Amino acid sequence: xxxxxxxxxxxxxxxxxxxxxxxxxxxxxxxxxxxxxxxxxxxxxxxxxxxxxxxxxxxxxxxxxxxxxxxxxxxxxxxxxxxxxxxxxxxxxxxxxxxxxxxxxxxxxxxxxxxxxxxxxxxxxxxxxxxxxxxxxxxxxxxxxxxxxxxxxxxxxxxxxxxxxxxxxxxxxxxxxxxxxxxxxxxxxxxxxxxxxxxxxxxxxxxxxxxxxxxxxxxxxxxxxxxxxxxxxxxxxxxxxxxxxxxxxxxxxxxxxxxxxxxxxxxxxxxxxxxxxxxxxxxxxxxxxxxxxxxxxxxxxxxxxxxxxxxxxxxxxxxxxxxxxxxxxxxxxxxxxxxxxxxxxxxxxxxxxxxxxxxxxxxxxxxxxxxxxxxxxxxxxxxxxxxxxxxxxxxxxxxxxxxxxxxxxxxxxxxxxxxxxxxxxxxxxxxxxxxxxxxxxxxxxxxxxxxxxxxxxxxxxxxxxxxxxxxxxxxxxxxxxxxxxxxxxxxxxxxxxxxxxxxxxxxx
Length: 508
Fold this sequence. Notes:
The chain is α+β, with helices and mostly antiparallel strands. The protein has four domains: 1-158, Methyltransferase, Cobalt-precorrin-4 Transmethylase, Domain 2 (2-Layer Sandwich); 161-229, no CATH class; 240-434, Heat Shock Protein 90 (2-Layer Sandwich), CATH 3.30.565; 448-507, Winged helix-like DNA-binding domain superfamily/Winged helix DNA-binding domain (Arc Repressor Mutant, subunit A, Orthogonal Bundle). 33% of the residues lie in helices and 19% in strands. The chain has helices at residues 7-12, 29-41, 74-85, 147-156, 177-187, 191-194, 200-206, 221-227, 263-277, 300-313, 345-349, 361-369, 379-390, 439-461, 467-474, 478-490, and strands at 21-24, 49-53, 55-57, 63-66, 95-101, 104-111, 121-122, 132-133, 136-138, 141-143, 210-211, 218-219, 240-244, 255-259, 281-284, 293-296, 322-326, 330-335, 396-399, 406-411, 423-425, 494-497, 504-507. It has a six-stranded mixed beta sheet. The protein has a four-stranded mixed beta sheet with strand order 1-2-6-5. α9 runs antiparallel to α10 and α10 runs antiparallel to α13. The chain is globular. It starts with 6 loop residues before the first helix and ends with a strand. 38% of the residues are buried. The model is unreliable at 416-423 and 427-435 (pLDDT under 50). This is ATP-binding protein. Keywords: ATP-binding, Nucleotide-binding. One of its GO terms (molecular function) is ATP binding.
């Protein structure tokens, strides 16, 4: 069977994290079975992992010498692997492929996160009675779990990530062969060479985008997200909405665009639109310098990472689109739900976000294969670095205590010491460069003041109103309501008294 990735990608380590890779010079039944079991348990929802046989591992777990596998031993290794994997309980079988690279043979083993975890295997796989252990993966090591980690595994037993679940409302015909072939060709998978001759069911099984017996073979959600022409049929509002306010939130002009289709396609289309219509290069001519200074109103790298992360981490069982609001002085990218609780609000403010568990293990896997995201907890740092290198203000990352939303705000590069005559844009300037409010910025500021006044009037008459009641009354996003409430509290104009569920608003 062929895998939906290639050996070169695994050896480079640029797409699949080292913690999801294990390299062995030869087939080691005891150690390798533990690793396969640990990948199947997928404690952190990484998407399982890969075992590559025929590569000598270095001390830090990265690939060393490519020794290859003796061709005379390949069949024996595969048969023994099959027999040893039968010792895993519940039943679990990884996907294997024998590949030729640089004139040598290698065995690639893909062990995706299982749907019946937790899995256990014998401590000593000899066939004789032996202690069974729920192996897990930590960093680049396979270890025996602590009692707390074992409880985590049991908690996850009936909590398969939504993107890896079977969709009982869809059929195999809802998966598009052209989209599948396009993906396989893009990532350099050997499956592409067999896509036209392989039975479609087997092709989908090899990609792990279907599950179930032959008589009831159904697509997984992730398969429909990437390889259905109309994923919104199965996941309402699985789309990206870009809303532009050229005159600010209080202006009369609103430009709306909606991007639908397979996730990677809508992401690329939305990014291309933002790159073509929103990102502008600014050229500043200074009297004390011979060369003009060049920068962008928004660094494209920061926009790309922010929107890619929103697609990666969105909850696709939630009927909320990803919303991109383009204002004169900032871009806001809003997605639902919020950050995992392993990421603290204080950590977000300090640009530290080390998520312990991924929400969409398979969505991230496909996006990383297409190099649309990294998924290594580096997103915030990359956005911050791109903003600072461009001379833009630092971005803002926000979530709420209930973790209902996640908001990224990218601020435009608008230096206050540049006069209008100094600055030129490649397609015209978006606002004043004098340090004073432009008409659009003044309108946005006044609009915010009026909106907060309306908020105060509403909660004064409806002291038990929920955030959702306020949002619907004001016709704005949840994040906007949260920011307004926070600002009013800081100004001493609003208080909240009582428990979260039964409290009331106090207008001061």
